[in-house]
Specification:
Elements lengths: L2 H12 L8 E12 L2 E6 L4 E6 L2 E2 L8 H12 L3 E9 L5 E8 L10 E4 H7 L4 E2 L9 H17 L12 H7 L1
């Protein structure tokens, strides 16, 4: 391959958005800490703490905190998931998009096609974390924003509260 072709290829690869260049791994969820943090055990028996990207769920001691954790646990605990990620946070957690297979499918032939992060927002048990929305793929930003608006309009989950307190405000008050 010529030097020019390699240069063009490298420029093309490094020009891709971060979401496209994200790392990924498959594993099984072995713990759920709260509505937006879980632990995944990969096939090499390495545990990864994953903070769900694009969302912020109520804190444990906050209204709907327990419901958010339960909903996430019901979706993924003990199940196989595919995690897309490109960075870690200051606590060493992977910030990732967690995709699971459809209900009733838990084998190697399953397709991972349900965005767990988005399901938390649809259920009204997490906010679309707009402060970090630019780190999401454009399609995800739109989907998460629409899901939050729909959950608000239906008054489901934390949107049943007249004045739900966003977790970032709750943390600041502590």
């Amino acid at each position: 391959m010529s030097y020019t072709r390699i240069t063009v290829l490298l420029v093309a690869v490094f020009s891709l958005p971060a979401a496209v260049m994200a790392d990924q791994f498959v594993g099984r969820v072995v713990a759920v800490a709260d509505g937006d943090t879980l632990t995944v055990l990969d096939d090499r028996y390495t545990q990864h703490r994953v903070r769900l990207s694009g969302i912020d769920a109520p804190e444990k001691k906050q209204a709907f905190g327990a419901a958010s954790k339960k909903h996430l646990s019901d979706q993924v605990f003990g199940r196989g998931v595919l995690v897309y990620w490109s960075e870690s946070d200051r606590y060493g957690r992977i910030i990732g998009k967690v995709i699971r297979a459809e209900d009733g499918c838990d084998g190697s032939e399953c397709r991972y096609n349900i965005d767990t992060n988005l399901e938390q927002v649809k259920a009204g048990l997490a906010w679309h974390y707009k402060a970090y929305a630019k780190q999401q793929a454009r399609d995800d930003r739109a989907l998460y924003s629409e899901a939050e608006t729909e959950a608000r309009n239906r008054g489901v989950g934390l949107w049943a509260d007249a004045h739900p307190i966003p977790p970032w405000d709750f943390r600041r008050r502590k």
